[in-house]
Amino acid sequence: MLNACQELVQLIQKQGRKWQKAIQFEHDARMRME
User: Fold this and answer.
1) pLDDT tens-digit profile of 1-34?
2) In 3D, which of 21, 20, 25, 18 has the Cα closest to residue 4?
3) Which of 28, 32, 23 minimizes the C-alpha distance to 5?
4) Are residues 12 and 19 in contact, defined by beta-carbon separation less than 8 angstroms?
5) Coil, strand, or helix at residue 34?
6) Among 32, 25, 28, 33, which Cα is nearest to 8's?
7) Would you say 8 and 26 are in contact if contact means Cβ atoms under 8 Å apart?
8) Which of 1, 30, 5 is closest to 13 using CA atoms?
């Protein structure tokens, strides 16, 4: 799971304009896990 978080951070850094979409996707993923 940690690797996925690190990949997400790298993705946000690369996709400056898509950071919000990436965070929203990660938030949705956490809601599903719970």
Assistant:
1) 678 888 888 877 887 777 788 889 999 999 998 8
2) 25
3) 23
4) yes
5) coil
6) 25
7) yes
8) 5
Per-residue DSSP letters for 11-34?
Answer: HHHH-GGGHHHHHHHHHHHHHHH-
| Distance from chain centroid for Cα 19 | 8
Strand runs (DSSP E) across 1-34, as ranges?
none
11 Cβ contact partners less than 8 Å away, ≥ 6 residues apart: 18, 22
**Residue 1: its pLDDT value, please?**
63
Structure pTM?
Answer: 0.40
17: tokens are 């304009």
**In which residue are the tokens 């940690």 written?**
2
Q: Give 1's DSSP letter.
A: -
